[in-house]
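User: Design a sequence. Structure:
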């Protein structure tokens, strides 16, 4: 389940998941609209139906809106101040038949924008800044830590113009690197607090404006090192990308983020924890940042003979529920390793009996010990 904690915007983007879209959570939206996104359903999807329950009045009998095509996986819903909504999504085919529903979202409540809380410094973030106090970096001049945006390394003690310390609030400045830290390549430098560095958490914030890049297909990649443990968050949500073992400051490790993005400005946080019992060095190094758009992650119309999400076949059938004869190649399941047909087998006496509408399948030829990968 996904929790949206970046509730300082007037239109929140709440991420649903893949095949049967998973639940979303947004405790409060400070504004009158919330945009929901979800991943693709499998099969010949004609569109999606969005069902909205308002103020706990029960599951609606009809969708509040529908989208057409498998590429439209976003819906913006509006609400009045104090109203609470809950959302379900289901795919439908060309005949209007619905597939499985997503789990319901948790409650999403619309609130007066003027009631939104202040940041830890006591004042709301500037519009479009995401609260870091820095101008958002554009995709065209995306940079690593400790540079001027044009690839030139800043001098020691200079505040990074794009990365800010949001906790504790302050400048992130270019550091004289500790001898144990991995060397920063050209066009990057270690950054950290300007003052004392006691044990604790240090949050480095980068505001990234995706511009025209579709957030549904955006990929943010790079390499990073930190002293000590660290984790990357996107728009307040953990990405699962962590540095938690060994000497995390001795190597530059690659990372790629493919989800959690929203249109426009996105908040990328590098949450670093300085370990120990007394003041000791801490810092962050990010290099080779790049934003691309991955068409493979976009929803593409299913091939004409692709299986419908509404009637997936078992192995050894013709797709209509009829068992194929022994030796016939399965039309849906194939052996991708080793590459070959997966054919219907005469079952071994020790195997469980296949029920009606299914059959055991396997390689057509020899079956030496090893791995066999069946792909649907």
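Assistant: Done.
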């Amino acid at each position: 389940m996904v929790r949206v904690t970046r509730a300082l915007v007037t239109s929140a983007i709440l991420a649903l998941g893949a095949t049967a879209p998973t639940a979303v959570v947004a405790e409060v939206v400070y504004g009158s609209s919330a945009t929901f996104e979800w991943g693709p359903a499998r099969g010949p999807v004609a569109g999606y139906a969005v069902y909205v329950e308002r103020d706990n009045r029960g599951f609606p009998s009809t969708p509040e809106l529908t989208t057409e095509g498998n590429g439209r996986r976003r819906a913006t819903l509006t609400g009045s101040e104090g109203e609470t909504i809950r959302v379900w999504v289901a795919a439908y085919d060309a005949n209007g038949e619905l597939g499985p529903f997503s789990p319901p979202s948790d409650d999403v409540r619309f609130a007066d924008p003027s009631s939104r809380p202040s940041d830890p410094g006591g004042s709301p973030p500037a519009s479009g800044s995401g609260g870091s106090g820095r101008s958002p970096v554009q995709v065209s001049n995306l940079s690593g830590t400790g540079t001027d945006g044009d690839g030139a390394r800043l001098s020691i003690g200079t505040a990074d113009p794009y990365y800010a310390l949001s906790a504790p609030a302050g400048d992130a400045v270019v550091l004289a690197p500790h001898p144990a830290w991995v060397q920063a390549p050209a066009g990057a430098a270690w950054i950290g607090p300007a003052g004392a560095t006691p044990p604790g958490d240090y949050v480095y914030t980068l505001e990234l404006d995706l511009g025209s890049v579709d957030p549904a297909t955006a990929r943010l990649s790079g390499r990073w090192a930190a002293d000590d443990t660290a984790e990357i968050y996107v728009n307040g949500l953990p990405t699962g990308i962590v540095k938690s073992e060994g000497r995390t400051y001795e190597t530059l490790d690659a990372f790629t983020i493919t989800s959690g993005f929203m249109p426009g400005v996105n908040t990328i946080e590098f949450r670093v924890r300085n370990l120990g019992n007394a003041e000791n060095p801490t810092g962050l190094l990010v290099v080779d940042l790049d934003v691309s758009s991955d068409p493979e992650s976009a929803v593409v119309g299913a091939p004409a003979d692709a299986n419908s999400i509404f009637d997936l076949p078992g192995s050894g059938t013709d797709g209509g529920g009829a068992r194929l004869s022994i030796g016939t190649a399965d039309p849906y399941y194939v052996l991708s390793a080793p590459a070959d047909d997966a054919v219907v087998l005469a079952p071994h006496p020790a195997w469980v009996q296949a029920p009606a509408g299914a059959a055991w399948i396997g390689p057509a030829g020899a079956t030496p010990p090893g791995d066999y990968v069946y792909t649907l």
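The mean pLDDT is 75. DSSP finds no helices and 25 strands in the chain.
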